[in-house]
Specification:
With 124 residues, the chain is of the alpha+beta class. 30% of the residues lie in helices and 33% in strands.
């Protein structure tokens, strides 16, 4: 059965800049490179709006710290894999019903500002 809720509110976190090993070319495997992460966290935040209590919503500061720590210590060939693992971290918080994760490598392609992937995952 699909995860259902009444409201689909969004908390977003933009432009988390971290350094990690990601890529398939030998030079990408030798040293960390800049990676830009953006998140859209969906859930029903009606209770939080009424209570004005952090316990009723997503603690995005704590979540950001987990993602930074994880990413800086990760090593993947594909940004798709990194995005999937970040989505799993976000969904480990039961208040996150659905997450959109963007992972970009700003220096990956010459003559392009950035390249990346956007995935959307939700609670089972």
């Amino acid at each position: 059965m699909a995860f259902e809720q009444k409201n689909q509110d969004e908390i977003f976190v933009r432009d988390i800049l971290v350094r990690c090993v990601v890529g398939i070319r030998p030079e990408e495997r030798e040293k960390k490179q800049d990676v830009l992460i953006n998140l859209s966290l969906f859930g029903d935040f009606t209770k939080a709006a009424k209570s004005d209590d952090i316990a009723d919503t997503i603690d995005y500061s704590s979540l950001k710290k987990k993602i930074i720590s994880f990413t800086e210590n990760s090593s993947y060939n594909l940004v798709e894999t990194l995005a999937e693992e970040i989505a799993k971290i976000c969904l480990s918080d039961v208040k996150v019903a659905k997450v959109g994760v963007w992972v970009e490598k700003p220096t990956a392609l010459r003559f392009a500002k950035t390249v990346g992937v956007h995935i959307v995952r939700q609670q089972n």
